[in-house]
Amino acid sequence: xxxxxxxxxxxxxxxxxxxxxxxxxxxxxxxxxxxxxxxxxxxxxxxxxxxxxxxxxxxxxxxxxxxxxxxxxxxxxxxxxxxxxxxxxxxxxxxxxxxxxxxxxxxxxxxxxxx
Length: 115
Description:
5 helices, three-stranded antiparallel β-sheet, Arc Repressor Mutant, subunit A, alpha+beta, 3 strands, elongated, 12% strand
């Protein structure tokens, strides 16, 4: 699982690839539609798509001369699942830290406390 998570976030570490994912979240699109807003040569853009495809975040389908790119929602769900587990761990730690700070503050306000 760690290698998969590394691949997801490595692929999403580039702003061009994140933009492609954001666009595909609305609907599948042809390679030319995805390439249009990006100021780069098509071969360079295709390398970005290959990274996303290798990570399992998108898949392509060729119909005639048109290659359509589809988002792989299940893969994104696995990445979100990993993020959710990390968030839950950190929220629990933050809650414990907050409780400790509040307890120390209450104890510090107590004039009968011998500490």
